[in-house]
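Can't paste images in this forum, so I'm doing it all in text. The chain is below; anyone willing to post the predicted structure tokens underneath?
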Amino acid sequence: MKTIAGKTVLLTGATGGIGVFIARILAKEHATVISVSRSKEKLDRISDEVEAAGGRGIGIPFDISKVEELSVLVQQINQCAGSIDILINNAAIEKYRPFQNYSLQEIQSMLTTNLVAGMELTRLLLPSMIDRNSGHIVNIASGSGKKGAPYNSVYSATKAGLIMWTDALRQELADTKVGVSVICPGYTRAGMFLQFGLPTPSLARLSEPTDVAIAVLRAIKQNQGEVMLDGLLTRLLFSNIQLFPHFGDAIYRWIGLTKLNKTCADRSWESEFRS
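Text version of the structure:
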């Protein structure tokens, strides 16, 4: 079992959603948590929390969608904290839309932030991990990457790419001590539905953000390849949809997910229009 104490962790998307809870649980393990997001004010608060919980907190304001500049970020981290032992690719953008209503800029932004940025950070950090024969990469995906979510198609595509890339990378690194994990949180209280005051689909499991953070910690310590926090029904669905895709479509309609996602898309569109 891997130890987290004394390790240096790079966490993207650290100030929003489940990122905050991941930072907190890493702090309790006495890790150095390098939090990255665009808000310096929020990063300062997270770093203070990490220090108070027993870790070392470093906040670096950075827009990871600027993938051509990620090498500069890595150099900056190496100078202030040394080599990175654990990378957690958590940053993501989620926008609900009928597909034809996405702009090209929105599609490119989601692909870059949700998928390409994590790939590029991993590409930059992996040689050092392989040389030291030590390290771990955690990618935060989604059940939407297992079964496409209507009105959330671009996000689904990015998370499916993240899952498949993680799978392939894990196989490449099987003969090393560099671990690779993908986490599919399912519905959480930090998710988009609750922001709009919408319920989760019937029969879906609702996880607490702390559950996701615990799953991340366990995946690192036990070198788990894939972790799904969805309920039993969802897991059974995912295990059968490749053989029976129309069955999966019918289940999504039955539990109300399709209708719910459309409502979320409508409210998201109205909210952005008003702003």
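The radius of gyration is 18 Å. The chain has ten helices and nine strands.
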